[in-house]
Design goal:
Distance between the termini: 83 Å
Strand content: 15-25%
Strand order of the largest sheet: 6-5-7-10-11
Number of strands: 11
CATH topology of the largest domain: Rossmann fold
Largest sheet: 5 strands, parallel
CATH architecture of the largest domain: 3-Layer(aba) Sandwich
CATH class of the largest domain: Alpha Beta
Radius of gyration: 23 Å
Number of domains: 2
Low-confidence stretches: none
Mean pLDDT: 88
CATH superfamily of the largest domain: SGNH hydrolase
Structural class: alpha/beta
Shape: globular
Amino acid sequence: MKVWFFRLFTIFVSFFVSVVLLFLLGELYFRFVFDLGFEYRKPSYFEFHQQRGFTLKPGDYDVFEVTAFRKSNIHINSLGIRDRERSLKPSAGKRRVTILGDSFVFAEVLNYGDRFTDQLENLFADGQTEVVNVSSPAYGTAQEILLIEELMGRGFDVGDTVVLVFFINDVCDNLGLDYGNLEARFPWQPVFAVNDSGMLIQAQPPEMPSYPVAAMIDWVFYDFFVTRAAMLLNQYPILLTSLTKVGVPVPLPRTPGIITTWYSPGWEERWGATETILQYWFENNKFQAVDKVIMYLPSPFQVEEGFKNILINFKDRDARYRDCLNDRDRPQRMLKKFCADYGVPVIDTTGALRQASRKGVAYFPREGHLNEYGSRIVAQEIYGYLEQKE
């Protein structure tokens, strides 16, 4: 017995030491490859803005995003947008299309050239169309509209078409609510409303923050493993289904935004607040000479089978997940119905992304935003609409 116990103990210790060495060597390797050093903190490219709460600060930033396990360069130009330097007016003989949106348009983890706005510009083979990316992470519809109004006030020509990208979280952003629990989000996140005079106002002004530097990254190699595991679950949904069947839970970092925003009690009122903001944009005299288009960008839970299986995994524990599975297209249906009343076209990319997801993964599994492949599909959808309109 003593001999067997000693052998088992030796095997256990050897295994433990091997795993520790593997993680230490992996940690050193990835920190060297990504040039992170031992005290990497994600830089902040935001600064306070009295009207919009926060805005982008011009400059260059090297950003490593742990959840996507990607490093990218963020260039904020002199206009305060993530794009190459753009003149206020389009060049002679060129037309301009402005894409307005939030983090899905900004695309932090993608480098310049990979975002769908960049790929869209490249689809115009004649080189006579420029596509300007006007966006910011964590912006809602109201902040996006205020941003483009400010740029126009500085003499920026939006061109003949403005595409406003709508994502399910915009409803919470407009009300300053956290996606995961519907509580107040940040003290510097304004709450917006349209008053009786039809003016877009702050129902709750932002507070001046001292922007904290992001926490130091502790274990890069561990995040690499988790990222790859999430990728496998999305590429091969049968793995997730098998884990569920044998009783292995697949935890979520928080309740998905689509669940809290669109399937929790009070969703009609939350959506109603955003309807008034969209109505303000539709009827705004500043945009009367511009073709206004809404593009609906679906949540990965509406597209990827792996994400859908996560909903299935939780449907017996939470009625909201069952409601979502029974009516996954509620957000775009409500959006299309509202826009139809104002004659504003909606480019719904859901179908194209669902079809594309059968061939490959369109979203970063843990980070949740579009990858290069998904961005290409979205670019093709917008291009098809603009070409057909011509």
